[in-house]
């Protein structure tokens, strides 16, 4: 199974999801992330907290969804509300698209401990969602069945 995680700036939530899915997917799921308006760099705290959770950060980069036309994912998962409302590239039209909305852990209120907790909570939710997905026959899950499973996971795990 191939998943493409989308966030507008592709520097935090989608990066977290890509890295976590690569670790947990262990060849069963191929993951990538992109954005409609990528910032060109991964948020440094995304890298820091992934590393603290023993999740590989090698190769993570902020990139445009235009670079993934040849990737052909089984599903596109939007993680921020603004990305869910954007007009996606034409090549997304035939793909399963599901919104896995998550609050942006990088939005700071000034308290570093609070920010660390927000990142840890976001990482935990993504991990639990991917673990729930891996309980299914991901190698054969397609179309409407895939959409149903992904939607159900988003509803149940938040």
Walk me through this protein's architecture.
The protein is α/β, with parallel strands linked by helices and 158 residues long. It has a single domain (2-156), classed as Rossmann fold (3-Layer(aba) Sandwich), CATH 3.40.50. 41% of the residues lie in helices and 11% in strands. It contains 5 helices and 4 strands. It has helices at 13-25, 44-52, 81-85, 112-134, 143-156; strands spanning 2-6, 30-34, 75-78, 96-99. A 4-stranded parallel sheet has the order 2-1-3-4. α1 (13-25) links the parallel β1 and β2. α2 (44-52) packs across α4. The longest helix has 23 residues, at 112-134. The protein starts with a strand and ends with a helix.
* Strand element count: 4
If you consult CATH, what is the topology? Rossmann fold
The helical percent reads: 40-55%
- Helix and strand content put the structural class at alpha/beta
Number of helices: 5
- Which value, in Å, is the CA radius of gyration? 14 Å
Strand line-up across the major sheet: 2-1-3-4
Characterize the main sheet: 4 strands, parallel
The unreliable regions are none
Percentage of residues in strands = 5-15%
Note the overall shape.
globular
CATH architecture: 3-Layer(aba) Sandwich
Total number of distinct structural domains:
1
Distance between the termini: 23 Å
**Mean pLDDT over the residues:** 91
Give the CATH superfamily: Response regulator
Order of helices and strands: EHEHEHEHH
CATH class division = Alpha Beta
What are the salient characteristics of this protein?
158 residues; alpha/beta; Rossmann fold
């Amino acid at each position: 199974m191939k998943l493409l995680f989308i966030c507008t700036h592709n520097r935090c939530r989608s990066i977290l999801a890509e890295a976590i899915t690569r670790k947990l997917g262990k060849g069963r799921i191929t993951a990538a992330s992109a954005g409609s308006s990528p910032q060109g760099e991964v948020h440094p705290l995304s890298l820091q907290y992934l590393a603290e959770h023993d999740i590989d950060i090698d190769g993570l980069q902020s990139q445009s969804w235009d670079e993934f036309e040849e990737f052909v994912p089984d599903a596109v998962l939007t993680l921020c509300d603004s990305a869910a409302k954007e007009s996606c590239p034409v090549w997304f039209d035939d793909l399963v698209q599901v919104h896995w909305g998550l609050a942006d852990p990088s939005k700071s209120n000034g308290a570093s401990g609070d920010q660390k907790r927000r990142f840890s909570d976001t990482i935990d939710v993504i991990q639990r969602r991917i673990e729930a997905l891996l309980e299914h026959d991901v190698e054969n899950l397609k179309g409407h069945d895939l959409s149903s499973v992904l939607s159900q996971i988003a509803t149940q795990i938040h």
